[in-house]
Amino acid sequence: MRADAAYSASILRFQPEAQPGSCSDTRNRDSLFQLQHGILLPSVSSFLCMLVLVLLMHIRHEDSNHSALKATLAGAAASLAIMVKASTLYVIPCYILYLLSCTRGRRVLVFFLAGCTPAGLFQLYYNWSCFGGLFESSYAHANPAIMNYENAKLLGPPTLRRLLELTILPLLLFWLIWIWLLRRRAG
């Protein structure tokens, strides 16, 4: 079972006092969704991706007898990161190119892919049993009790405020902190 769907279902199951459609149910669901997708899952996925990168760097820069084991562990961590957050899938080609860029990496690429296999097979089985196809995902069958719809679509166009929050405001904050640090250092 996918980690994000299982977590949401388990939390929502233990709220019997909140009636579907009530104001408290909507607030709880929205805050849970934001907490889960905004903080928890990206943190776990980022940790696993960083672990993969550290293991692959050890393979590339250290001459060790444990390179095959490190590659297998890196593959397992990469596939777990994908199971936690599906968008991590786009990092896997970068890992493979990194392995292909050195001789030791080319030798252990098979072990990396073997480490990815068990969790990958489990994900394919889960997709097939729950959604009817190996490459069908939960995104095509979103649960309206957890995810919000706009205009009968799961994801709507971003508002101008949201675009500003994602682009301009972080840059503005960065520049203000940078100017403050320069002034503080100058004296």
Structural account:
The chain is built from 7 helices and no strands. It is mainly α. The protein folds into 2 domains: 3-156, no CATH class; 158-187. The radius of gyration is 21 Å and the shape is flat. The model is unreliable at 6-28 (pLDDT under 50).
Topology:
Elements: H1 3-13, H2 23-61, H3 67-84, H4 92-100, H5 103-131, H6 160-166, H7 168-186
Brief write-up:
With 187 residues, the chain is mainly α.
Q: Which short descriptors sum up this protein?
A:
187 residues; mainly alpha; 2 domains; 7 helices; 0% strand
Low-confidence stretches: 6-28
**What is the β-strand count?**
0
Overall mean pLDDT stands at 75
Oligomer designation: single chain
Structural class: mainly alpha
- How many individual domains? 2
The total count of helices amounts to 7
Summarize the biggest pleated sheet.
none
Question: How far is the first residue's CA from the last residue's CA?
Answer: 56 Å
The percent range for strand residues is under 5%
The helix-strand sequence is HHHHHHH
Overall morphology? flat
Helix content: over 70%
Rounded to an integer in angstroms, the radius of gyration calculated over CA atoms is 21 Å
